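Notebook entry, structure prediction.
Reason for the run: the old model in the group folder had no record of what sequence produced it. Starting over properly, with the input documented here first.
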Amino acid sequence: MSTVGHMFESLTEGNLTLRPFEAADKDVLIAGRDEEFDRFLADASPEPAPSACIWVDDVLVGWVDYDQDDRHWLEGDEANLGYNVFPEHRGEGHATRALRLLCFYLAALDPPLRPTLLIDPDNAPSLAVARSAGFAQIGEVDGELFFRS
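New structure, fully documented this time:
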């Protein structure tokens, strides 16, 4: 994903922090990829540079990203969000909390950006994260489920 812009400050909620991506994070992000990542994010960049990395306490557990690339399903004030939590940290609520923080950040921009998600219908964990983070399915795009916050 290419980003519209990186976060300028860290955002924290409890022990979870979204920190801007740094080049030193790249190897950890690549090492955190697994079969599930490959299945649902197959077109991921070999040079990851997401908007933010997800830190829990002092451990890098994944990433979140947003973009406004030329996607036919996005309206002018919308951003497409993406995320991944490393396998050993999944199921602990980190993705949901990180998405909520990213949505907070996007809402505070001037002008604000409305967050959207596009999720493979077979990706049950990601569908659960979307709903837990307050997204509602509003349709389908190219065989994937489309959500707005």
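Summary: The radius of gyration is 14 Å.
The old model has been moved to the deprecated folder.
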